[in-house]
Write a structure and sequence with these properties.
Helix content: 10-25%
Order of helices and strands: HHEEHEEHEHEHEEEEH
CATH architecture: Alpha-Beta Complex
Mean pLDDT: 86
Shape: globular
Distance between the termini: 14 Å
Low-confidence stretches: 1-22, 25-39
CATH topology: paralog of FGE (formylglycine-generating enzyme)
CATH class: Alpha Beta
Number of strands: 10
Length: 286
Amino acid sequence: MKTNLFVLVSFVVVGCQAANGPGFQINPNDTEDSSASTLDDYNPATDACPPDMIFIKGGTFLVGAPAELADKDSNSRVPIGQVTPDDYCISASPFPGNDQAWPAEGLNADIVFHLDAVVHGFGRRVITGSEYLVAVSTEYNDRYPSGATSWVAANCGSDNDPGNIGDYPCQSRYGVNGLLTFLFWGEVDEEIRDILQGSQDPPNGNVQFVVFGGLDPKDYAYCGDDLWGYQNHFNDKFVYSNERGVLFAASPGWVTTDQQAAYEAFAAAFVASGTSGGSWASVVDY
């Protein structure tokens, strides 16, 4: 019998939702009498995000594959373009978290849609394409993690032998790990939608989620092996086994401590739902 985590965690969220505004702006361990409990001591790089997330300063970034790369092969990539995300928090590790087994199956757009609805209750959401590209390629517009020159040099885990999340030192200069092992789902924000009109498979207005990233070069994947890879399944309901990755974003300072506790319970229940990686069937029926 399937365990539906949406039902389980909906109860937790209703019972734990804070009513007094944002969290992770003031240290939750501070008391009312502590002089540290003021926004004068607030540091967004360390205090604005939950402990499992990284603060990314917003701004204008040039990200994606330069035009000359498209002349070398037929892989599908995000064309180079400009994005301007606001400040945001992003998962330091793919769901369900560092040191955990990767989810047992891949995702599709329907499952991602339902997952996004669930994590909204924890002050989170599935990342946008712009947020993904900025977090993994950074202001240097890295093709491979940490400025490496190839998938092999970045020391990434193969989808055929992925290990646990974070086992490989394949991470961005901003600290997001678990890259280029499985592909990541992301929401199509308007800037990315415009940029992707120059790609091999531009999304129409009905496509909400697409896939980003690359895989082991031995896979000869359609999207290639780098951070700029992109695939559009046109809301196909088929589940692809190498598309297991999902990162969440949050608005800095607005995840409450109760929401964080509920999210951690949700992730733990997901991990417990499978024998070798949690099952998406425990989140939604599909």
